[in-house]
């Protein structure tokens, strides 16, 4: 299983057809130009489904409200 670091979190994606948007050359050309994107994606052929994942760490908000 591929393991990535994103927003201070460790992400483990399922084996198979998975990708990280920031690794695509087309994304790299547009980086810094107010482009919003998902962080990861993977294809589950058994369910015929594409999953997209945006990762955010909101733990700092919990610390402020305590």
Give a quick set of tags describing it.
2 helices; globular; alpha+beta; single chain; 20% helix; 66 residues
Give the helices and strands, then pairings.
Layout: E1 3-6, E2 9-12, E3 17-20, H1 25-30, E4 40-44, E5 49-53, H2 59-65
Antiparallel strand pairs: 1-2, 3-4, 4-5
Explain this structure:
The chain is of the alpha+beta class. It has one domain. Helix content is 20%, strand content 33%. The longest helix has 7 residues, at 59-65.
Strand and helix order:
EEEHEEH
What's the total number of strands? 5
Secondary-structure-based class equals alpha+beta
Beta-strand fraction estimate:
25-35%
For the largest beta-sheet, the strand count, sense and barrel status come to: 3 strands, antiparallel
Widest β-sheet, arrangement of strands: 3-4-5
Q: What distance separates the N and C termini? A: 36 Å
Uncertain segments are: none
> How many structural units, i.e. domains?
1
Radius of gyration equals: 14 Å
Mean pLDDT: 78
Helix content: 10-25%
The rough form would be described as globular
**What is the multimeric organization of the chains shown?**
single chain
Count of separate DSSP helical elements: 2
Q: What's this, in brief?
A:
20% of the residues lie in helices and 33% in strands. It has helices at 25-30, 59-65, and strands at 3-6, 9-12, 17-20, 40-44, 49-53.
């Amino acid at each position: 299983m591929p393991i990535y670091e994103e927003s201070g979190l460790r992400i483990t994606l399922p084996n198979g057809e998975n990708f990280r948007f920031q690794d695509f050359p087309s994304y790299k050309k547009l980086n810094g130009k107010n482009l919003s994107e998902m962080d990861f994606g993977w294809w589950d052929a058994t369910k015929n489904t594409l999953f997209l994942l945006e990762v955010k760490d909101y733990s700092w908000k919990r610390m402020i409200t305590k």
